[in-house]
Amino acid sequence: MPIFFILSFLFPFVADRPKSLRWGLLSLLAVTGTMVVTNIAVLLLFGDITVGFTYPLMIATRYIALADFIEHLEAFLMAIWLLGMFVKICVYYYLLVYIAAEWLGLSDYRLIVPPIGLLVTVFSVWVTPNLQVMAHFFATSGAIYLWVVKGALPMLLLGVALVRQKAGG
Length: 169
Prior knowledge:
3 domains, 75% helix, germination
């Protein structure tokens, strides 16, 4: 899900909306800038062979050596990466549980936390059992599925919401 859709789900829970919107957009700009700089650095370092690496930033991090003392920073990079993925998964999981509870009309969302957690775990292993299957999916038909899930489905939901809003007055 693009970050704007995630922010649109979280925005109603925020107390100071103008300040939060400003900091949210600044954070998004900072993350985008960091990704652009790191991607350009990796491309300048490896050139055409970048495509052959699964995780080129990890390989580029191996080349960092500061004063012959600070080396092997890939563990630091992995710690940042894992922390970021943990936060992202927690936010997605919370939104999934909250939206499912709203959709089912439940008064307490905590009732469906374990069943949805079990379903997410089972489906995550079932969909991509290993890295080779995931790489094959993204190289073949993944682009079509991603376009549908990240593009067409949100636009369809937006269209339905607009039609319901006009019909309701």
